[in-house]
Amino acid sequence: MENQQSQRIRSAVFDWLNSINYQYPDRVIPSSVLTNDCIINGERIILSGAQGIWKPRQLQYPISIKSVADSIYQDAQLDNNLIHYKYRGTDPNLYVNVGLRECMHQRIPLVYLHQVSKGKYLVEWPVFIVADDPKNLTFTVEANSNQISLSSEPNITEEPDEMQRRYATRQMIQRLHQGTFRERVLEAYREHCAICRLKHRQLLDAAHIIEDSKGGKPVVQNGLSLCKIHHAAFDNNIIGITPDYQIQVREDILQEIDGPMLKHGIQEMHGNKLILPRSANLKPKQEWLEERYEVFKKLNLELIIQI
Ligand SMILES: [Zn+2]
């Protein structure tokens, strides 16, 4: 069994994560916060190590496992419903691998760190190790919809059933994929709206040029960093973007008379150039913009005829 002191610290770590959650609503946390800011009983607990499976010296067993989005040295493989996590090295009896196996046997909650950019992690908690496959040198990780409570009770008493756990895991994998896309797009645009320059990450989205459902890829060239208003305007063809990065406002909207949001926020954007990432290979793919612009153009033409 995990000793009591270690259990108490682990529980306090989850309380601390819950307490900072409001500062990071999208659960993207700088690595400096994870390595410096978790202070329990006056002691710093480091939550992120140099390598994938991490055990702070104050704990008996590991606290976190880490993966890197799209790394060639992938620690984790995200399937539709399952996360396969690689052992450290090839020795099943290496201490961190043994530690993680103990976390599985004792149902000890862990923190999942998914690196989305240099120095930033998408953080999920709690996760559990539910299976061990020494032949393939992997563990299976599952999410759990039960929040670790803020009380001092470290163990989860009521187990969610298998369906709930699968569902929670699928949602976690989706969050990791979407969060990775969002973070990369926002970073490419230096956390500005590509239309109005607004710089508040809580008000920014990573919009798809070609939607997911239409086969759009989750790559930066298929993304635009847009504020909530401009994202909705783009999705609803109120605003169109030409393949050569010019902003167009739909004809009927241009003629409308309304308050300052319409005037300054939308109408005045007409004809402006899109604000683009500095790096050429991160700019929106013109072919995809063109495909999307065709829809806008068709709708706009129909409206012009009506007007
Ligand atoms: Zn905007």
Tell me briefly what this model is.
With 307 residues, the protein is an alpha+beta fold. Helices cover 33% and strands 21% of the residues.
What's the gyration radius in Å?
23 Å
CATH class of the largest domain: Mainly Beta
Helix content: 25-40%
- The residue-averaged pLDDT reads 90
Describe the 3D structure:
The chain folds into 2 domains: 4-184, PUA domain-like; 191-306, no CATH class. Strand 13 and strand 14 form a beta hairpin. The strands form 4 sheets. Strands 1, 4, 5, 6, 7, 8, 9 and 10 form an 8-stranded mixed β-sheet that branches. Strands 2-3 form a two-stranded antiparallel sheet. Helix content is 33%, strand content 21%. The relative contact order is 0.09. The model is unreliable at 148-152 (pLDDT under 50). The chain is an alpha+beta fold. The protein has helices at residues 4-20, 31-36, 95-105, 162-188, 228-235, 251-255, 260-266, 286-306, and strands at 28-30, 39-40, 43-44, 53-54, 64-68, 76-78, 83-86, 110-117, 120-133, 138-143, 204-208, 223-227, 239-241, 247-249. Zinc ion binds next to strand 12 and helix 5.
Keywords:
PUA domain-like; 307 residues; single chain; two-stranded antiparallel ribbon; binds zinc ion; alpha+beta; elongated
Secondary-structure blueprint:
Layout: H1 4-20, E1 28-30, H2 31-36, E2 39-40, E3 43-44, E4 53-54, E5 64-68, E6 76-78, E7 83-86, H3 95-105, E8 110-117, E9 120-133, E10 138-143, H4 162-188, E11 204-208, E12 223-227, H5 228-235, E13 239-241, E14 247-249, H6 251-255, H7 260-266, H8 286-306
Parallel strand pairs: 5-8
Antiparallel strand pairs: 1-9, 2-3, 4-5, 6-7, 7-10, 8-9, 9-10, 11-12, 13-14
Residues 193, 195-196, 198, 226-227, 229-230 line the site of zinc ion.
